[in-house]
Write a structure and sequence with these properties.
single chain, 93 residues, mainly alpha, two-stranded antiparallel sheet, 3 helices, 61% helix, binds zinc ion
Length: 93
């Protein structure tokens, strides 16, 4: 059994799609994780108990239920991180 916040999966999936539409935004790992953390702090956690491999259909329905909130939270997080990125000390030029 596994305790899982599947809002994380939804945000991660939506983040990939939203970043793909933003060619000017840095997509390094540090910025992706910063955006993830910011967006998740604005969204309600959704914990479920799952068996391995069980969650996917439920994620799909929840994704539709929260999609506007998720997109808003991620978009705001992208704007924030893109305006003050924290990756410089860790990234090779
Ligand atoms: Zn970056």
């Amino acid at each position: 059994m596994e305790l899982k916040n599947y809002m994380e999966d939804i945000v991660w999936q939506s983040l990939e799609e939203l970043l793909a539409a933003q060619p000017d935004v840095c997509k390094c790992q540090k910025c992706r994780y910063d955006i993830m953390a910011l967006a998740l702090n604005f969204l309600p956690p959704r914990y479920v108990v799952t068996e391995a491999g069980e969650t996917f259909t439920r994620i799909k329905s929840l994704e539709q239920q929260f999609s506007v909130d998720v997109i808003t939270a991620i978009t705001n997080a992208i704007i924030l991180v893109a305006s003050r990125p924290h990756h410089y000390e860790e990234r090779e030029a």
